[in-house]
Each structure stands twice: as C-alpha cells, then as structure tokens.
Design goal:
This protein is of the alpha+beta class. It has one domain: Aspartate Aminotransferase, domain 1 (Alpha-Beta Complex), CATH 3.90.1150. Strands 1-2-3-4-6-5 form a six-stranded antiparallel β-sheet. Strand 2 and strand 3 form a beta hairpin. The radius of gyration is 14 Å and the shape is globular. The N and C termini lie far apart (about 40 Å).
C-alpha cells in the first residue's frame, strides 16, 4: 500500500489535522518542498535533503526538525546529533499557539538545511 498525507490525517481528530495544516503552512512560507510519505511519517524534503517531518497522532502532532544547532524548549521532547553539523529535534505539539513565531524560525532554519546550507563551510 502506498501511504498518503490523507491516510495519516484520516486517522486523527480534526484539531490534530489543523495542527498539521498549520505546520505545513509554516513550511510553505519558506518556499517549495516535496513530500515523502510512509506509514510511519510524512517527511518534507528540500532541494538537497529531508529537513522536517510530521506524524499526526490521536492527541498530538509529533514532528522533527533538522537544525544546525541544539535548541532547548519545552516543546522539544528530545534532540540528538544526527551528523557533525546537524541535530535532529523531536517535538510534540498539542495546541495551535505552540506553532508560533519561534517555531516558525526553527522551520526556516530547517528549510535552509533542506537546501544544503549545512554543507557550506
């Protein structure tokens, strides 16, 4: 079976689907991207690599962002080095107000990673 975004959203309440929609709006504000959808997650890809992902769940939108620095915030459930230059941050979002300007800034940083900014010396 080929999974789609709709397959993920069909399994969650409307309020979680709205969180996902807002997450995607923030990414779209950065520029074009593509999707890679599997049963386990929706990955967002830039021109060079994946940079973010989401998994709509029954009570939250769990997502990840690849950033060039470690970020501390209550929304971040864990972070770890991914490569020498990247840290993967796992986040849990339960309310729309958590997708604020700070979160949008992280998405812009992750989008730059998707474009390969982390490869520039």
């Amino acid at each position: 079976m080929t999974w789609t975004v709709d397959d993920h959203l069909d399994q969650v309440p409307d309020d979680i689907a709205r969180l996902y929609d807002r997450f995607i709006e923030l990414v779209a504000e950065c520029g074009p991207f593509t999707y890679s959808v599997t049963k386990s997650a929706i990955t967002l890809k830039g021109t060079r690599r994946g940079f973010a992902g989401a998994k709509p769940k029954a009570h939250s939108l769990d997502c990840y962002l690849d950033l060039q620095r470690r970020v501390e915030d209550p929304r971040i459930t864990r972070s770890s080095p991914y490569t020498k230059r990247l840290f993967v941050h796992y986040l849990r979002v339960t309310r729309l107000d958590q997708l604020d300007d700070v979160f949008g800034g992280w998405i812009r940083e992750a989008y730059a990673v998707g474009a390969g900014e982390h490869l520039i010396p």
